[in-house]
Write a structure and sequence with these properties.
alpha/beta, Rossmann fold, 2 domains, nine-stranded mixed β-sheet, 12 helices, 15 strands, 35% helix
Length: 335
Amino acid sequence: MAKKVSVTLIGVGGMARWHLRQMLTMTSTTDIPVVCEPSEKQYAESVKIFAEGGQKPPPNQPDLDRLLHDYRGQLDAAFIITPHANHHDQTAACMEAGLDVLLEKPMVMNAAEARSLMTVRDRTGKLLVVAFPGSLSPQIRKAVTMYRAGVLGELQSISATVWQSWGPGTVGSWRQEPKISGGGFLFDTGAHMLNTVVDLAGEEFTEVAAFMDFNQRPVETEAVVIGRLKSGAMVTLHGAGESIPSCASDIYAFYTKAILRTGIWGEKLEMQTTGENRFKRVRVAKSRGVWEQFLAVREGKLANPCPPEVGLRMAKLYDAIKISAAQNGAVVKCE
């Protein structure tokens, strides 16, 4: 039997607990000997998840530097699920300590931080995977494979929408503090949309025009973006963060031989081809989430679909969108 991967969770807030429930179904491959959480309240909530899974809760060491020192040689990996402003320094520290890292999206706050982590990755030789469920999902990987194989024909355009009651739902949280979050709805939940659309396209944007609405909040909660890819294919992106209580998405990708329908998290994959009058489900292997896919990458069973270069791509695209929105929708080149 293969040795279990010993992983520490850096941050055990609400998103981490969602991942934790999936991870606790993989006890044959995964061991969590310690977590790092500065909030006693959040740690107490995570203890309940371990209890629900019939597992003994690990101790909490809220100081990351102390944790990396005390557990040196005992850990294989870190799963970082903290506010966006912490991502760069925490990831660099973990890789420098010899750990592979699965990092919650968005990877970093800006392009400079993305390049910095790429440098640390190259110097340490450690694995860094950004936890974009879309990139890591069998559904999006299947769509990309079909496109590259010529099954779908040439890409013509993509239309993507994500909606959530994000504005009212994140009031008072760090997600609406620009210095910590790095942006609003389009940089948070909407980051999945930006990333998955570029994954499906297999190419980057050359230009965008964008409008944002802050709705009297500190960060944007609604955004509309139109853009053109390097091939000339056109894209529309719609982020509706002031929706009624909900959280969902749709992506339509139009090719010369087919239409694909999926979601920003890769939660589904359907296809309609010439002569068919409805979408049909494309069957793929089931996944238990990003941690399972990270393990597959780490074991060499899967090429890393979400390296730090993806984080740089995301940072550059969001920067161009912000610049355009600040100029009332002016067309901005994506350098």
